[in-house]
Amino acid sequence: MGITERIDAVTGLTETYSKPVVPAPRSVKIELTGRCNFNCSFCARSQRLRAQKDMDRALFERLLLEMRAAGVEEIGLFYLGESFLVDWLEDAVHFAKKVAGFPYVFLTTNGSVATPRRVQACARAGLDSLKFSLNYADEEQFRSIAQVKSSFYQKMLDNLRGARAERDLVEAETGHRMGLYASYIQYDGEQGVRMQAVVDEMRPFVDELYALPLYNQAALLTESEESRGWEVTAGNRGRLEALRDPLPCWSIFTEGHIAWDGKLSACCFDHDGRFHMGDLQEEGFMQAWNSPKFQALREAHLKKDVRGTVCEKCVAYA
Questions:
Q1: What pLDDT, on a 0 to 100 scale, did the predictor assign at position 315?
Q2: How far apart are CA 217 and CA 220, in angstroms?
Q3: For site-directed labelling of 154, which of 91, 162, 204, 251 has its Cα 20 to 30 A away?
């Protein structure tokens, strides 16, 4: 199963998950670090609305064992930060795959520090999927949006090329095939055309390359990004070619999101902590996953009326 099929499987609400109390999510993203070396204008992380630190390793390992026992099948070793900044990332992959026993371990990166050496180590540790966020058409756009030195742009592309060589090497030697993917954000109606050259250049190095809409990130970016002439979509509607309805939002039913400090969030873009549904340092994963607070939010989504909830600005009335 390719990455777009997996995305569509998680973002598609089934009857089993269309309830206030739901089984363990099929997928969970857990944040090894809240840090990132980019300051992208489309990402509210750059506003530093919450502390951005690294997850305690013992907490990470305990949560993975607990979630796998509860039935979680897919674990993403990232949330809002850049996981390749963590020096024990390779160990985290090994623990998730070989100790906790997750069938599918995935990771998304901005690519700037995902060197071929580290990508090979992650592939050997059992990483099933690595996706590069290829969100910039050229060096000029990269400098404007990522707001870091432009040399990172070429480094990102070089690392993607190197990742393909390392993936193929590990597969030839071990038989383990790590999926290699890329995505880009469609900021406006012209971005697809503007991206064409780099997409054509990078496509031979990846298994799939797909587009995403520009999310409003819990309504934190709508005003600033619309001032650029960009087209912002409410909620998280999945990938561009398989958009979901903003209500009910699949995210609170089928995918868990855990911040570096152990807070379980209801949102893919919880940059300020308002979506916290439980503290996993104080309670079990399933207890927090079906907490009264989470149940009330799901009920509002199922009624397609989220007025008065934390989702009001983001989803229904953005």
A1: 66
A2: 6
A3: 91
Per-residue pLDDT tens for 100-137?
999 999 999 999 999 999 999 999 999 999 999 999 99
Is residue 43 over pLDDT 70? yes
225 with 235: CB under 8 angstroms?
Answer: no
Dump the DSSP string for the chain.
Answer: --HHHHHHHHHSPPGGGSSSS----SEEEE-SBS--S---TT-GGGG--S---BPPHHHHHHHHHHHHHHT--EEES-SSS-GGGSTTHHHHHHIIIIIS--SEEEEEE-SSS--HHHHHHHHHHT--EEEEE---SSHHHHHHHH-S-THHHHHHHHHHHHHHHHHHHHHHHHS---EEEEEEEE-STTHHHHHHHHHHHHGGG-SEEEEEEEE-TTTTSHHHHHTTT--EESS---SGGGPPPSSS-THHHHEEEE-TTSEEES-TT-SSSTTEEEETTTS-HHHHHT-HHHHHHHHHHHTT--TTSTTIIIII--
